[in-house]
TrEMBL record:
PANTHER family in alphabetical order: AMINOMETHYLTRANSFERASE, AMINOMETHYLTRANSFERASE, MITOCHONDRIAL
Keyword Hydrolase: no
GO-annotated molecular function: aminomethyltransferase activity; transaminase activity
Enzyme Commission number, as recorded: 2.1.2.10
Protein name in UniProt: aminomethyltransferase
Native source species: Vibrio furnissii
Length: 377
């Protein structure tokens, strides 16, 4: 198969031609032809996002709407998260679970008043849509949004830049969401993102996405950022990537995601449980009895420890696996995310990563490795 033929079979986002025009290096990702980096290169793109503002095309993600009076209650039967009490104009992190307590996908849920707005991962999009269609009651309508792109503007100067086009966004707090015009374009804007920095995710009509992207990148603070830097940015800030750090064999308790399960869904009362795998997940919460835990690891040498690297204890017994790893451009040291045997998950525990036949020492470290800078007012 030729490269040209392979590319033809990939889906493209509404910004594909613009990426090619500005010299992006395109790679297959989750069934799409996506920009992995631009002229700056991954490390400089990473550092630019931490210092100024980066623009990401995340239009490959799935955008959905749930309509109907019972939409929040219906969604609660599929996630261990409080959706019913989610205030209008607010967004929340959630995940679908299976009957074994494993995570089918992680997602964002927002209350836009007359409907719920849901964003799911690109690689799980079709599966998630099928899952919702199979389980939602007749009074709740699932609308698949296929005429909108999704941009993320991230970094300490993101708010200043976006407020030049729409001053109202400056007053938004972390996880606020609203329908607002940006440069005359009807957008859905949330103050959130996947970099650990302050910033926004902007759902924009597909036919106006290029115009908005050109307007944003015309500001000197803003550079295009590819998937390479998106990955190192999210990892430094301790954020999971589905299919790597989370999967359908991993429970939220093993994944150290207990913070995302609100007390109303796990500590008694009418809305405790009632989601797939609830018995297993609630039992793990109560007993703290899991065989493995997701942890952060910091390298004690300069060598990055990548996904798939096996981990051992001082006696040479295999005790875990690295699920994400980077050189840590901002952290200044190699950082990884891994699952290790639960008795070795305490902060400060030394483990050893086998890299090219050498046992490299690493320490279990608290995440995030770089402070999150979300704007909470």
């Amino acid at each position: 198969m030729t490269q040209e033929h392979a590319t033809q079979e990939l889906l493209i986002t509404p910004l594909h031609a613009l990426h090619v025009e500005v010299g992006a290096k395109m790679v297959p990702f989750a069934g799409y032809d996506m920009p992995v980096q631009y002229a700056l290169g991954v490390k400089k793109e990473h550092l630019h996002t931490r210092e100024a503002a980066g623009l990401f095309d995340v239009s490959h993600m799935g955008q959905l709407r749930l309509h109907g009076e019972g939409a929040a209650a219906a969604l609660e039967t599929l996630v261990p998260v409080d959706v019913v009490d989610l205030a209008e104009g607010k967004q929340r992190y959630a995940f679908f679970t299976n009957e074994q307590g494993g995570i089918l996908d992680d997602l964002m849920v927002a209350n836009l008043g007359d409907h719920l707005f849901v964003v799911v991962n690109a690689a799980c999009k079709d599966q998630d849509i099928n899952h919702l269609q199979a389980h939602l009651p007749s009074g709740v309508e699932l609308e698949i949004i296929d005429d909108r792109a999704l941009l993320a503007l991230q970094g300490p100067k993101a708010a200043e830049v976006l407020a030049r086009l729409q001053p109202a966004v400056a007053d938004m707090l972390f996880m606020d969401i609203q329908q607002v015009q940006i440069d005359g374009i009807d957008c859905i804007v949330s103050r959130s993102g996947y970099t650990g920095e302050d910033g926004y995710e902007i759902s924009v009509p597909a036919d106006q996405a290029e115009a908005l992207a050109r307007t944003l990148t015309a500001f000197e603070e803003v550079e295009w950022i590819g998937l390479g830097a998106r990955d190192s940015l999210r990892l430094e800030c301790g954020l999971c990537l589905y299919g790597h750090d989370l999967d359908e064999t991993t429970t939220p308790v093993e994944a150290s995601l207990l913070w995302a399960i609100q007390p109303v869904r796990r500590t008694g009362g009418a809305r405790e449980g009632g989601f797939p795998g609830a018995d297993i997940i609630l039992s793990q919460i109560a007993t703290k009895d899991v065989s493995r835990k997701r942890v952060g690891l910091v390298g004690q040498t300069k060598a990055p420890v990548r996904e798939g690297t096996e981990l051992f204890d001082a006696d040479g017994a295999k005790i875990g696996l690295v699920t994400s790893g980077t050189a840590g451009p901002t952290a200044g040291i190699p950082v990884s995310m891994a699952y290790v045997r639960a008795d070795l998950a305490a902060i400060g525990t030394e483990v050893f990563a086998e890299v090219r036949g050498k046992m490299l020492p690493m320490l279990v470290e608290k995440m995030p490795f770089v402070p999150q800078r979300y704007y909470r007012g």
